[in-house]
Amino acid sequence: MLLLITSTEPRHESFVLAVDVGTTSIRCHVYDKEAQIRGSCTDKVVPLYPEVGHVEMDPGEIWRGFITVVKGAVQDAGVQMRQIEALGISTQRATFTTWDRKTGVPFHNFISWQDQRAADLVKSWNRSCTMKVSLCLLYFLTRQKRLLAASLIVFSTQHVTFRLAWALRHYTQVRQAVAEGKCCFGTIDTWLLFKLTKGQVHATDYSNASATGIFDSYQMCWSGFLCSLVSLPLSIFPKVENTGHDFGSTDPSIFGVPIPIMSMADQQAAMFGECCFDVGDVKITMGTGTFMNINTEISLCPLVGLYPVVGWKIGSEVVYLAEGNAADTGTAIKWAQELELFSDVKDTSAMAYSVSDSDGVCFVPSFSGLQAPLNDPKACASLMGLKPSTTKSHLVRAILESVAFRNNQLYETMLRETRIPITKIRVDGGVSSNDFVMQLTADLFGRKVTRPQHLEMSCLGAAFVAGLGIGYWRTREELKKLQSTDKMFLPRGANKEGACSRSREYIPVLQSWERALRRSMNWYKP
């Protein structure tokens, strides 16, 4: 006689966990099958400013914050760690440290992507005619597109390249560790992975690597040519893996159970979270900085404004993006709040709408210099056109307008350099919650701009990639069906497709702002 025994233990629901390590906060969300957030936890990131132009972060505090938000989000969801099927990680870009391969102890703080210590090195490199002529000659002889790309590239202080060269020059411990073969280099994702696996895995993914300025996106490897030019030892670099990849599991001693780490990504994860899978799809992430990406599918030669990055590599598929960014979006709004121009960020949109214009005030948001398409690390932040009649509302409007104006600069650069027809524009990040900024952006673009219900798209993108890797979700079409929209911003006078001719109302204001922009450039002399 066959006796069937059925377990009475209830089947546990499973979840995907994702962590986004941003510039001002670390966020963790627990996602269910419908991509709904079941639990969350947030911790602050405190930047350090040891010298003028230096921006750093404490590795110990980043690690403590990471552990805190993971445990806090799981607790908030009311679930157990054993119910977490996979972990995805997205991080702020190009913030790095170096550490001892044996002990895991960092040699110095994280040097932030906002850091300006290598500004003079960057300026010198970009002006180097010898290097550019040599690369052009090599391209003429070989017709290799990557050499043409290298000759055209404009480096910025946000690229790791010259900040890492600076660290090798100024930190004796780092040079000694390199000589002894025990130095590891890594951006935040790499260092967290090293810590989570107790030193077993030293790796990054293609999206993070491609944003460092040291990666050859044509050959899909670290650029030995560039490393030799700026004296960077290849031995310190991590292995580069797919964005969706089994990076190993967290050590059981950390969370009580091993959790598979199934994705790592730069902010490009937001493109995946927004389901921008097709050529011409545009995503604008507006957090501490603004990152505007367009899906180009194939790699582009970098021109004056944009920079080619890997969006993701999953299996054999590589998706390329063209990117422009502005460093001081949320930074400008936070600065205004600290000056007590307003008490609650939610009030800023109403304040801006309460006045018909900025009373001629122009704000230039360049605390960390100006990025694409101007690329001036010596530019200063400035307020111009102040009058006795200027009120707090005028100042707030000028600051919010500057965010939309920088969006417009990036958008025009993108249209001019890629010549790719735009299919859709989606926004995310904390600043995208501001209706004034989003409506003005739509008016300036002459295009419909869509905002999702949940703004942490980098987190969702990391979760989507991790979930696809374990079969939690099966197809990208399934992911598209999980998308939710909060609001669509239509340009004034839009047709049924949400498009119209670009607003001319703001042309005089834009011209005044561009004049202020030029006066802010090259302010800080070497």
Structure report:
It is a single chain. The protein has 526 residues and is of the alpha+beta class. The chain folds into 2 domains: 15-117 and 157-265, 2-Layer Sandwich (Nucleotidyltransferase, domain 5); 268-520, Nucleotidyltransferase, domain 5, CATH 3.30.420. Helix content is 35%, strand content 21%. The chain has a 5-stranded mixed beta sheet with strand order 3-2-1-5-13, sandwiched between helices. It has a 5-stranded mixed beta sheet with strand order 16-17-15-14-20. Strands 4-7 form a two-stranded antiparallel sheet. α12 (329-338) runs antiparallel to α14 (392-418) and α14 (392-418) runs parallel beside α15 (435-445). It is globular. 49% of the residues are buried.
Determine the mean pLDDT: 91
How would you characterize the largest beta sheet? 5 strands, mixed
Count of helices? 18
Structural class: alpha+beta
Fourth-tier CATH superfamily name of the largest domain? ATPase, nucleotide binding domain
Oligomeric category: single chain
Helix content: 25-40%
- CATH-defined topology of the largest domain: Nucleotidyltransferase, domain 5
For the largest beta sheet, what order do the strands appear in spatially?
3-2-1-5-13
Taken together, the total number of domains comes to: 2
CATH architecture of the largest domain: 2-Layer Sandwich
The portion of residues forming beta strands comes to 15-25%
How far is the N terminus from the C terminus?
Answer: 90 Å
Low-pLDDT stretches are 1-10
Question: Which helices and strands occur, and which strands form pairs?
Answer:
Elements: E1 15-21, E2 25-31, E3 37-44, E4 56-57, H1 59-77, E5 84-91, E6 96-100, E7 110-111, H2 119-126, H3 129-142, H4 145-152, H5 160-170, H6 172-179, E8 183-187, H7 188-196, E9 203-205, H8 206-210, E10 215-216, E11 221-222, H9 224-229, E12 239-241, H10 252-255, E13 261-265, H11 269-273, E14 281-286, E15 290-295, E16 307-314, E17 317-326, H12 329-338, H13 348-353, E18 362-364, E19 382-384, H14 392-418, E20 424-428, H15 435-445, E21 449-452, H16 457-470, H17 476-481, E22 485-489, H18 507-520
Parallel strand pairs: 1-5, 5-13, 9-12, 14-20
Antiparallel strand pairs: 1-2, 2-3, 4-7, 6-8, 10-11, 14-15, 15-17, 16-17, 18-19, 21-22
Organism: Sparus aurata (Gilthead sea bream)
EC number: 2.7.1.30
GO cellular component, one term: mitochondrion
